[in-house]
Every structure is written in C-alpha cells, then in structure tokens.
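User: For my dataset I need records formatted as: sequence, then structure tokens, nothing else. Please produce one.
Assistant:
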Amino acid sequence: MEIYQTPKPWGTYEVLLDDELTKVKRITVYPGHRLSLQSHKFRQEQWTVVEGKLTVVLDDEQLIFYPGESVHIPLGAKHRAWNNGDDIVQFIEVQTGTYFGEDDITRYEDDYGRNEFDYESGMC
C-alpha cells in the first residue's frame, strides 16, 4: 500500500494501514485549527499523541494530551481533535469496527463549512 498525505483545511492525514479489521492514520493538525465535532456509527478510535499538545473534546469534556498519552473515542461519542497551540500536533488514530469509510461521519460543528458527505468526490 502506498502512503500518501491527504490535505484537509485543518492539516493532513496519511493512511498507514487499511484492511478489513482496522484503519490506522497519522494525523497532523496545524496550529490554531481543529477537526469537526463528529461521531461515527460503525467505528471507535484510539488516538495516541506523538508530537505537540492535543486538546480533545469528548462528549461534554475538554481534555489535554501530550506525546505518549492516548484517549479512547467510543462508538457514537461526539469528539473533536483541536490544536489550541502554536506548534504542530500529530497523533496516530487506530480505528476498529465494522466500517472505516469517510462517509461514516456525522458532523455537528465544522469551522470550514463542511456538513454533508460528497459521494462523488469522496470528501466531506
């Protein structure tokens, strides 16, 4: 499998592994940016910080994690990754569940106006 960066308005991600049991991504979030507040119907996630200070919104809590620390995102939980600092944040996301497509995202808030999944482009 070829590893390539996918640009997003908040940073980039690289898919490191994608098979029937799991998907693993390296996610980079630019300073001052955050991903959408979202949930998933078919997967849970485990995030491990490798660089920077990651602010995580998990349901009604705001938590902070540093390199080497992890957080579990349960199936159906509202969550958001946020780089509330001045340096790059990078974390590894391990997805487990029954489906790993990008269309398994329900968005509640998004700083970039993305609300619906576009099936033709495969982008949110």
